[in-house]
Amino acid sequence: MCADQQRKRNAVTRLFRNKATMATTTFYTKQRCNWIEGRDAKVDEVMREWMHKFCTLQDVKICVSTFNVNGKSPQSVFPTWFSQKKEDIAEFYAVGLQEMDLSVGTYIIDNTKKMEGWVDAIHCSLPGGRTHFNVVGSMRLVGIFVIVFQAAHSKVRVSDVNVKYVATGISVLVNKLGNKGGTAISMKMNDTWVCFVNAHFAAGNNELERRNQDFRDIYNDVVFYPRSQQDGLRDRPLEVPVMCLYDHDVVFWFGDLNYRLNTDIYGISNDEVRRIASSEKFGDLFQYCQLREQMARGTVFKDFQEPKVLPFRPTYKYDCGTNTWDTSEKGRVPAWTDRILTYKKYPQVGLELIRPMESVETITISDHKPVRALFNLKVKKINESGANSVYEEAIRESDRRANEELPQVQLSLNEVDFGIVNYLEPKTRSVIVQNVGKSKVRFSFKVRPNAQNNQEICEKWLMVSCIIFMNEEEMKMPI
């Protein structure tokens, strides 16, 4: 056997040994009659509409918080970071830190001491303390850290936990330092895919495009790979990505996004911004937010949501230990740099903000303020046998809808008789083209055989009033 044949044989052998790959590379298995989401978009659409037939929904409270800690060491506990009210206690807490460690050595040697201190402080700050919550997963990129906790009493089944980081900071030779970038955790809550992304974008008033590029880099590079369970290689990724960011049912994206206010363009001074930001009219400044402007243009965070106006003062920049705006030589203009945004894959996903977003002004160790938000997510639990029994009916319904979408028109006349036509005497006849289908129809006249140009549809003595037209549903068009 030649070397090339041996390589092909080995490739086929590996394919058949890998059951995980088999499940995703062919429909011709004993599971072919079962519903696998993503196989057919039209069928998936019907299945989502019929989800009540094979799914139960469970309300789950999720608290998300972001905090740029400015390299500071944590205190033992932050009593006001998370609401301790019974009605505000969440089942899951997702926390993102930025600038957790600013020491130069951190970029060279992995030092976990400060991270461990912050994990302990967050754990102790959760309602009821560390004994009431367990760590689901965490991911660190130098000073960018994300961690998710689950309540010990929670009945939600968490599976398929995976992590990823993307560095977007300063380039050194062919690599990028992790001073900017993102960390992400993907998981399945019952049968709902959820992703938490903590990001730190480029700083500086004039770095708008760099911030936009940071978003694009993280969005494109956050790809979660399946973990092989074969031959004991538990953490070895396969070649085919299993989940991209927008494949999740829900994405929480939070962090120090560093978008500033464009007040200088409109001639508003730093002193005036500070005066307004300190008053009850701080919301008037939100119209100048760079992030909101970029979202409106579709440049970044397409399909992500955020409250129309943030109901708290700008979270940056303060003198550490105070609630006083930056008095350093740079005198930074206040801005809402710290944000929490959400994405839903489908409109049917039940996600709502159940408390107004808040900044925690009582925490003063950093030049930023923490931001927190409380959500309710309806996580689904699929009854597989129920889904599979509905699946075949959904295929038929999908076919029926596809047939309805086929173009269908009806003519008022099949033949046009002008009767007796005299020389130089114009005569007019009308034919009604009616769209009797359920989709738009574009109709046109065919060019005559042997026509001298590609627009000649009839003899020169005949004029047609409508040659090409887009006909809406149930619309009648006279010709």
UniProtKB/TrEMBL annotation:
<dbReference type="InterPro" id="IPR036691">
    <property type="entry name" value="Endo/exonu/phosph_ase_sf"/>
</dbReference>
<dbReference type="Pfam" id="PF21310">
    <property type="entry name" value="OCRL-like_ASH"/>
</dbReference>
<dbReference type="InterPro" id="IPR013783">
    <property type="entry name" value="Ig-like_fold"/>
</dbReference>
<dbReference type="GO" id="GO:0046856">
    <property type="term" value="P:phosphatidylinositol dephosphorylation"/>
</dbReference>
<dbReference type="GO" id="GO:0016020">
    <property type="term" value="C:membrane"/>
</dbReference>
<dbReference type="Pfam" id="PF22669">
    <property type="entry name" value="Exo_endo_phos2"/>
</dbReference>
<dbReference type="InterPro" id="IPR048869">
    <property type="entry name" value="OCRL-1_2_ASH"/>
</dbReference>
<dbReference type="InterPro" id="IPR000300">
    <property type="entry name" value="IPPc"/>
</dbReference>
<feature type="domain" description="Inositol polyphosphate-related phosphatase">
    <location>
        <begin position="58"/>
        <end position="383"/>
    </location>
</feature>
<protein>
    <recommendedName>
        <fullName>Inositol polyphosphate-related phosphatase domain-containing protein</fullName>
    </recommendedName>
</protein>
<dbReference type="GO" id="GO:0004439">
    <property type="term" value="F:phosphatidylinositol-4,5-bisphosphate 5-phosphatase activity"/>
</dbReference>
<dbReference type="InterPro" id="IPR046985">
    <property type="entry name" value="IP5"/>
</dbReference>
